[in-house]
């Protein structure tokens, strides 16, 4: 199968939405029956984002095979409906680490190890490793052209056109075309400069995607085409839109996919974007609005909860409900009757690490439980729900997690003893169980659901497979009293019988899970737990 590569770089400024643009283009090409995959290259030195703070990097997205990756992989999965793997994202750090391991083993037979060719070769090998069984491989280069740290990636993708053949490589450059209101003009100069910078590295872009507030008019597109040496029909305008799901159509309307297929000489049927139309129509047809509170630590940073927020919106689409999301700082919740909680139709506590803000989370769960407010706990949100129930219903005041109090008397949540440590062995040797990075229960694991439970009804399956990312889990030995008091375990891991889902049945909707269902929700299908949570929150009347 001929492999065609589309390399996407960014220019002028960061945060232009390169990931969404790449995912949207992937979605159109997939809709043309092409086999598409997307790879994200991150120029930072961390081996993966697993140990990085969400304030630095946003959410850590977890793949089925247990890689901790950039959140853009979440967009890729949601847009192109293809499962990402540990090969779809790598960093400068992981490349260096791999090259250094080889150097220590003597694999280079005494050569001097250099950025070119050793680092660039390792980058190219990793791109090619991920290309198997695909006609189109989109490769998004993180950062902005001009950054020192992304140079080896740019050099590697420059070389790939020589290795593979220029006719099988397209370079797309995503830039900003600002509107200067005082002059009343759209400015093309930053784009020209950015392209110049790319040219100085040896890359002539074939397509320019211009991000702007308003559509870039033909005259300006002609000007960009002339100065940047690309045909005018390859200067694509990508204006701000109120929904990211409108972007595939916006790109298709400008025939970006036709241009690419002609360039690669691919004979692929027209893209059918009906599924996307449905999503956009569902967005328009919501007939009520509800407010869901996400109680967490990163309220100024919605990207920290990207997949959760997306999954809530997908569930809204499925219920024809507009979901407004309120990020609430758990540290501001000092008692269970705070006004902030009273306005919510539903409460969700997402995953998290460390003891900061735990008290506010315990109070929010108590409030939801006692006042029949739909509650959805995810990972940490399940662990805290168990602690809350043990403390306030069972009456064990010392119940806690050893994550927050290693010496606690009643550790209802404890370190995973038999840790199923993940390491992607496709390109490195297996780690020992000593590091913080890559030493959690990670990735997809099967879970058995109990008959007559809400989860069993919602999934309509006995065994489900969901993705994990945690170091602590429910302590089975201390569960009996809690279950007798009314909090039931309705899902258990298939391999070692650990609690994975809990439910309280005499409550309108109280469900929490140890895994992360948000990672598998898509705009087209939603996720059964999120869909039912929103349905139930929709019935919970608030003013
Ligand atoms: N901190 C908890 C653990 O390590 C929960 C992790 C999470 O919410 N992803 O088990």
UniProtKB/TrEMBL annotation:
GO cellular component, one term: cytosol
Region described as Amidoligase domain: 1-266
Domain CTP synthase N-terminal: 5-266
Family named by the database record: Belongs to the CTP synthase family.
GO biological process assignments: 'de novo' CTP biosynthetic process; pyrimidine nucleobase biosynthetic process
Signal sequence interval, chain numbering: none
Subunit relationships: Homotetramer.
Alphabetized UniProt keyword annotations: ATP-binding, Glutamine amidotransferase, Ligase, Magnesium, Metal-binding, Nucleotide-binding, Pyrimidine biosynthesis
Ligand binding (L-glutamine): 352, 380-383, 403, 471
Annotated organism of origin: Buchnera aphidicola (Brachycaudus cardui)
Sequence ranges assigned to domain Glutamine amidotransferase in this UniProt record: 301-535
Binding positions for Mg(2+) per the UniProt entry: 72, 140
Protein name in UniProt: CTP synthase
Residues annotated as binding ATP: 15-20, 72, 239-241
UniProt-annotated binding residues for CTP: 14, 147-149, 187-192, 223
Misc note: CTPSs have evolved a hybrid strategy for distinguishing between UTP and CTP. The overlapping regions of the product feedback inhibitory and substrate sites recognize a common feature in both compounds, the triphosphate moiety. To differentiate isosteric substrate and product pyrimidine rings, an additional pocket far from the expected kinase/ligase catalytic site, specifically recognizes the cytosine and ribose portions of the product inhibitor.
């Amino acid at each position: 199968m001929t492999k065609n590569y589309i390399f996407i770089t960014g220019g002028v400024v960061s945060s232009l939405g390169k990931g969404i643009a790449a995912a949207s283009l992937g979605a159109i090409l997939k809709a043309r029956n092409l086999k598409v995959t997307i790879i994200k290259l991150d120029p930072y030195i961390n081996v993966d984002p697993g140990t990085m703070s969400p304030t630095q990097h946003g959410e850590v997205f977890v793949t089925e095979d247990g890689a901790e990756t950039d959140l853009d992989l979440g967009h890729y999965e949601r847009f192109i409906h293809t499962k990402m793997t540990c090969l779809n994202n790598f960093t400068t750090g992981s490349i260096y680490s791999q090259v250094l391991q080889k150097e220590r083993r003597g694999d280079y037979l005494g050569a001097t190890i250099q950025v070119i060719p050793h680092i660039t070769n390792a980058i190219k090998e990793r791109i090619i490793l991920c290309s198997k069984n695909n006609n189109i491989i989109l490769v998004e280069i993180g950062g902005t052209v001009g950054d020192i740290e992304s140079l080896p990636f740019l050099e590697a993708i420059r070389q790939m056109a020589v290795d593979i053949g220029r006719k099988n490589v397209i370079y797309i450059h995503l830039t900003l075309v600002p509107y200067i209101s005082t002059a009343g003009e759209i400015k093309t100069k930053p784009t020209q400069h950015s392209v110049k910078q790319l040219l100085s590295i040896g890359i002539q872009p074939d397509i320019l995607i211009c991000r702007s507030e308003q559509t870039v008019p033909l005259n300006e597109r002609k000007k960009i085409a002339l100065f940047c040496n690309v045909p005018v029909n390859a200067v694509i305008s990508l204006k701000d839109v109120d929904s990211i799901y409108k972007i595939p159509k916006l790109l298709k309307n400008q025939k970006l996919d036709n241009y690419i297929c002609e360039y690669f000489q691919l004979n692929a049927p027209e893209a059918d974007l009906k599924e996307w139309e449905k999503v956009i129509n569902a967005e328009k047809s919501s007939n009520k609005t509800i407010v869901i509170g996400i109680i967490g630590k990163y309220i100024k940073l919605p990207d920290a909860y990207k997949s959760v927020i997306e999954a809530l919106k997908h569930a809204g689409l499925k219920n024809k409900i507009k979901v407004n999301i309120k990020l609430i700082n758990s540290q501001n919740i000092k008692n269970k009757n705070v006004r902030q909680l009273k306005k919510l139709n539903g409460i969700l506590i997402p995953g998290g690490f460390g003891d900061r803000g735990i008290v506010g989370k315990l109070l929010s769960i108590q409030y939801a439980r006692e006042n029949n407010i739909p509650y959805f706990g995810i990972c940490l949100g399940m662990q805290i729900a168990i602690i809350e129930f043990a403390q306030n219903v069972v009456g064990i005041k010392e119940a806690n997690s050893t994550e927050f109090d290693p010496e606690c008397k009643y550790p209802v949540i404890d370190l995973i003893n038999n840790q199923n440590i993940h390491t992607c062995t496709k390109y490195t040797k297996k780690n020992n169980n000593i590091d913080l990075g890559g030493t959690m229960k990670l990735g997809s694991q099967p879970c058995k659901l109990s008959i007559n439970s809400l989860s069993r009804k919602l999934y309509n399956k006995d065994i489900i497979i969901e993705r994990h990312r945690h170091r602590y889990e429910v302590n089975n030995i201390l569960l009996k009293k809690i279950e007798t008091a009314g909090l039931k375990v309705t899902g258990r891991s298939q391999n070692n019988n650990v609690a994975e889902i809990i439910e309280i049945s005499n409550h309108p909707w109280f469900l929490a899970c140890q895994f992360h269902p948000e990672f598998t929700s898509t705009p087209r299908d939603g996720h059964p737990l999120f869909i039912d949570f929103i349905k139930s929150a929709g019935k919970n009347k608030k003013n």
